[in-house]
Write a structure and sequence with these properties.
This protein is α/β, with parallel strands linked by helices and about 425 residues long. It folds into 2 domains: about 5-175, Rossmann fold (3-Layer(aba) Sandwich); about 180-420, Dehydroquinate synthase-like, alpha domain (Up-down Bundle), CATH 1.20.1090. It contains 20 helices and 8 strands. Strands 1-8-5-4-2-3 form a 6-stranded parallel beta sheet. Helix 9 (about 205-220) packs antiparallel against helix 10 (about 230-250) and helix 11 (about 260-275) crosses helix 12 (about 285-300).
Length: about 425
């Protein structure tokens, strides 16, 4: 993969925007960790951040390579599962000293998000030493954390360096390899939502970035049956695909090329799980199952000949439902939707006018059966998804996950067509 070219960005994109990525170096190979000494030779006051699991996997080795340059460490507990909430954010923020000149994150999703956010807020560079090919946020310029019981995506910055040692990646727990594959397959849903929002909501769209993500998605879809063998070339391809998706997010300045209705459902399950102390699946695996659900919504809509405009929004009944589902997070959800103003928009006239275009977009997405086959090829069980999440929870997610975000997706159209307020 020609990362040097990707990191140079695109100056004159047909979309009218210049795309850039601030990452200086991406190293994906055996013994990549050894490159840290050279890459960080100009830094003398390093803060190393990990959890007890990732520290044992390669954090100790990172510290040994960098020696006295590592002046401080923050090692989060690895059990129970680290949540990127206010407490975790504060712990990292308090660990950054005035002398700290770079933060090294050793881990994957949560560790990366925390270090990305705090390094951005404290105007420090950071680099990530990846411990699993489990998610697409390594190269992105956004950070997803939980504040006020809400899953919030903040603008941040990309890492200065991404270091991925293939021996570490291929020996990651298989569930994390599956999560990376599932997160990638979820892009079928995310990209379709981006096209839909361009038509319905007039959202900015870049065909170059769209094609870039779709291309790596197609290549990654082929390796599902081989992932269990942990072949170096397949793990490398998976990780490269995840990084390219992150670069795509950096290019457009948000997570739109990688996150749509499938991520909204996944965030719903996580937020409600934390609120109610209920189980939820690892992010990438949950995204994969949620992408099947959202594709089934598109297929259901395709069968309808035309948009029916009988839906009437009832603010009082909607707010009652939101408070019932989101409990102490409800105020944040309601405030967010008051700001987006989507419930006040006359989407019905747009749906009527552009119905054929909308159906054409939905027809571009692969079938839910094809997506199930892809997940099965990597051993990702949709039956497990249905056993962890009850039919009622899935229904609530389909109708109310959209309210967690300010992004237009198929969930808004499906809500307008299918939701019935209780009398």
């Amino acid at each position: 993969m020609d990362f040097e070219k990707l990191l140079n960005g695109i100056d004159n994109c047909p979309c009218g925007k210049a795309h850039k990525c601030d990452i200086e170096k991406i190293i994906i190979k055996k013994d990549a960790i050894k490159e840290l000494k050279r890459l960080l030779s100009s830094y003398s006051n390093i803060l190393l951040v990990a959890d007890t699991n990732t520290y044992e996997i390669c954090g100790e080795r990172v510290k040994a390579i960098l020696g006295d340059a590592v002046k401080d460490e923050l090692i989060y507990p690895g059990v129970p599962l680290l949540v990127p909430d206010e407490n975790a954010i504060k712990a990292l923020n308090d660990s950054v000293k005035s002398e700290t000149d770079i933060i090294i994150a050793v881990g994957s999703g949560v560790i990366n998000d925390l270090c990305k956010l705090i390094s951005y807020r404290r105007s420090r560079p950071y680099c990530i030493v990846a411990t699993a090919p489990s998610m697409d946020g390594y190269a992105s310029s956004v950070s997803a954390v939980i504040e006020g019981n809400m899953k919030i995506t903040y603008a941040a910055h990309s890492p200065k360096f991404i270091i991925a040692d293939l021996d570490v990646l291929k020996n990651a727990p298989y569930e994390m390899i599956q999560a990376g594959f599932g997160d990638t397959i979820g892009k079928y849903s995310a990209l379709n939502d981006w096209l839909l929002s361009k038509i319905v909501n007039g959202e900015y769209f870049c065909e170059t970035v769209y094609d870039m993500v779709y291309s790596v998605l197609q290549k990654t879809a082929e390796i599902g049956p081989r992932l269990k063998d942990r072949r170096e070339e397949d793990i490398k391809l998976l990780f490269e695909s995840l990084v390219i998706v992150g670069i795509a997010m950096a290019y457009v300045g948000n997570s739109r090329p990688a996150s749509g209705s499938e991520h909204h459902l996944s965030h719903f399950f996580e937020v409600v799980g934390l609120l109610n102390n209920e189980p939820y699946l690892p992010h990438g695996i949950c995204v994969a199952g949620s992408a099947v659900i959202t594709q089934r919504l598109r297929e259901e809509i395709i069968e309808i000949q035309e948009f029916e405009s009988g839906f009437k929004f009832d603010r009082e009944k909607w707010e009652r439902a939101v408070r019932s589902i989101y409990s102490k997070a409800a105020d944040g959800v309601i405030d967010l939707q008051d700001k987006t103003g989507y419930y006040k928009r006359d989407f019905a006239s747009i749906y009527k006018e552009k119905w054929e275009e909308i159906i054409s977009v939905f027809n571009k997405a692969p079938s839910s059966e094809y997506m199930l086959d892809l997940l099965n090829s990597a051993g990702i069980s949709f039956s497990e998804f249905n056993s962890v999440y009850s039919p009622e929870k899935i229904r609530n997610a389909v109708f109310f996950a959209k309210d967690l975000k300010d992004r237009y997706t198929v969930l808004w159209l499906y809500f307008a067509m299918k939701y019935k307020f209780e009398e």
